[in-house]
Amino acid sequence: MIARTNGTPISITGLGCHVPERVLDNAELSTIVDTNDEWIVERTGIRERRIAAEDEALTDICLPAARRALEMAGADPASIDLLIVATVTPDMAFPSSSALIADTLGMPHAAAYDLSAGCTGFVYAIAQAHGMLSAGLAKRALVVGGDVLSTILDWTDRSTLVLFGDGAGAVVMEPVARGGFLGFELGADGGGGANLWLPGSGSRKFAEPEKYVKMNGREVFKFATRVMVSSAEAILGECGRTVADIDVYVPHQANVRIIDHAAKKLGIPQEKTVVNVEKYGNTSSGSIPLALADAADDGRLVPGKLVLLTGMGAGLTWGSALIEWTHPTTGAAA
Ligand code: ACO
């Protein structure tokens, strides 16, 4: 789907993120699998990632992010009437992680559900929240993106282990006077799904079920470099904007080579591109809100700036959102 928004302007009024304390750097990773810092940095740009503790599940890392976002928005948790958590690593299949978070934070009036769209989950979730808010079905939404991928990684498989990390981010969304989201583009290609999958993790029986993420890195790389560009171009065209209008580009943080390729092909200069993959790796649904929070801490997200978010991931899925930033956002540090 692709659409320019209409009706009441809706924007992000609060932003927060959180990562687990434990840092796993490339040197330590090299003691676990046959890899080295030079290979990982050259092929991915990643230097370290955060790994959840044994007793830390998804909601444990989402809650601090959500609390920060609510605080920044000055929003009472009880005023949230929609909570969407984008993730592929919920605490459990049910109850949903969003229902658990709503209960812990005290959101008795919130519709709460989880959404699964791989690493594009956060972009899908803000589009859904936008739809509900602009239709008047909700008044104030909390959208959380987060994953604890370390729990579904094969810790003996160097081809996937080096790429991923754990983390979460959250935003409060609500109607504003002007500005806010200008449009969304979202897509999915289930035909390519087996290039990044976890067969046996649901109701379909497989002769050889997998416990861990399986990925065809080269195919995902080709897919990623294609859709990161086509999705961004599509949403800019739909909203009548050009690349020159973009002030802040927040791409999914999968691999610095994918980000560089997309930015170069689109013609977005380095200084407008947010990159933090070196310190967190690919945190899936947490990636874009974590990068947004870093951009806020750098003072880049000021009212009036045009911000482009583009993600891609398992599904295979992709998605972009274009926002005219409306609210001062600072202090969202992890
Ligand atoms: N350390 C050292 N060597 C390694 C490692 C490692 N961690 N992993 C693979 N190698 C070796 C391979 O065995 C191979 O050796 P060989 O030539 O002797 O056979 C060599 O390095 C090259 O391997 P390739 O897989 O061809 O390496 P490539 O340049 O394609 O890079 C990578 C691999 C980084 C995974 C790349 O394909 C990529 O980034 N793909 C996209 C992955 C991605 O972003 N996935 C997630 C996106 S979706 C989402 O976010 C959920």
Describe the structure.
With 334 residues, the chain is of the alpha+beta class. The radius of gyration is 18 Å and the shape is globular. The strands form four sheets. A five-stranded mixed sheet has the order 1-9-14-13-12, with helices on both faces. The chain has a five-stranded mixed sheet with strand order 2-8-7-5-6, with helices on both faces. It contains ten helices and 14 strands. Helix 3 (58-73) crosses helix 4 and helix 7 (217-238) packs parallel to helix 8 (256-266). It has one domain: 3-Layer(aba) Sandwich (Peroxisomal Thiolase, Chain A, domain 1). The mean pLDDT is 96. It binds acetyl coenzyme *A (ACO). Residues 35, 39, 43-44, 118-119, 158-159, 162-163, 196, 215, 217-218, 220-221, 224, 254-255, 258, 282, 284, 313-314 line the site of acetyl coenzyme *A. Acetyl coenzyme *A binds next to helix 2, helix 6 and helix 7.
